[in-house]
TrEMBL record:
KW GTP-binding (keyword) present: no
Record-linked Gene3D superfamilies: Ribonucleoside hydrolase-like
UniProt keyword ATP-binding, yes or no: no
Domain of life of the organism encoding this protein: Eukaryota
Alphabetical UniProt keywords: Signal
Protein name: Inosine/uridine-preferring nucleoside hydrolase domain-containing protein
Cleavable signal peptide: 1-23
Domain Inosine/uridine-preferring nucleoside hydrolase per the UniProt entry, residue ranges: 29-223
PANTHER family, A to Z: SI:CH211-201H21.5, SI:CH211-201H21.5-RELATED
Taxonomic lineage from the root: Eukaryota, Metazoa, Ecdysozoa, Arthropoda, Hexapoda
SUPFAM superfamilies recorded: Nucleoside hydrolase
Length: 239
């Protein structure tokens, strides 16, 4: 199918080329809410891992751009198509204050509502919860993990509440969230922080490690041209 082949081309461009080896790649855990924007970020991280720059220890999923079940399906599908290494995934918790108030910015399933014609292998999703996984990984790698947060901070705040050591056992927390002027389109605020402001406040005030906050303005109007030539050539030949 066209959409499947285009995604394969995208992944091929990201993972192609010479592989560099870094003796000390940055250890990372990535928390995602399953929208297309997070999947782009995962592809970039997988490319960095292929170059030996980072090592993704785990992916945790959080209710955000779509329902938590869709988040797991979307992420497993992307990793499967990308033929990514066996990175374990851990299901996070659903925001108790949310029912059906999703934006559906990327479709109801967060991935364009495409009819893929096949179901991804969900064996990456482990039985351990995201909270338990964060506690275990920070104990195994104290002070070494960069926690990259691409969705609402529900998982992180709950993990810090239940396991306070997590707040000091990380190396750093990298957050895509918030916005500078206090307004963003019709929302009036950036999506991740607006979805769970209590958790955002808890993480920002309780973390005892450096935090890098990337507001939404820095993510707008950015062009990523990883494999545009290959995709355009394929589309031209099959139009």
């Amino acid at each position: 199918m066209l959409k499947h082949l285009v995604l394969r081309l995208l992944c091929a461009g990201l993972f192609g080329g010479a592989v560099m080896v870094d003796a000390n790649p940055r250890l990372m855990v990535v928390d995602v809410d399953g929208g297309l924007d997070d999947e782009w970020a995962l592809l970039a991280l997988l490319r960095a891992q292929n170059l030996g720059l980072v090592r993704v220890l785990a992916i945790t999923t959080v209710d955000g751009m779509t329902d938590i079940n869709n988040v797991c399906v979307n992420t497993c599908r992307l990793l499967q198509v990308a033929q990514a290494p066996d990175i374990p995934m851990y299901r996070g918790i659903k925001n108790k204050d949310r029912e059906t108030d999703y934006l559906y910015l990327y479709g109801k399933d967060g991935f364009g509502d495409l009819d893929w014609g096949w179901k991804p292998d969900l064996s990456r999703v482990k039985g351990m919860s995201a909270i338990e996984a964060l506690a275990r990984l920070t104990k195994e790698h104290p002070g070494e993990i960069s926690l990259l947060c691409l969705g609402p901070l529900t998982n992180i705040a709950e993990a810090m509440r239940l396991q306070p050591d997590i707040a000091s056992n990380l190396q750093e927390i990298l957050i895509m969230g918030g916005n500078d002027p206090g307004k963003f389109g019709e929302l009036g605020a950036e999506f991740n922080f607006l979805t769970d402001p209590e958790s955002a406040n808890a993480v920002l005030t309780q973390a005892k490690v450096p935090i890098m906050l990337l507001p939404v303005e820095t993510c707008l109007n950015i062009e990523l041209n990883f494999v545009s030539t290959e995709i355009l050539r394929y589309l031209k030949n099959h139009s």
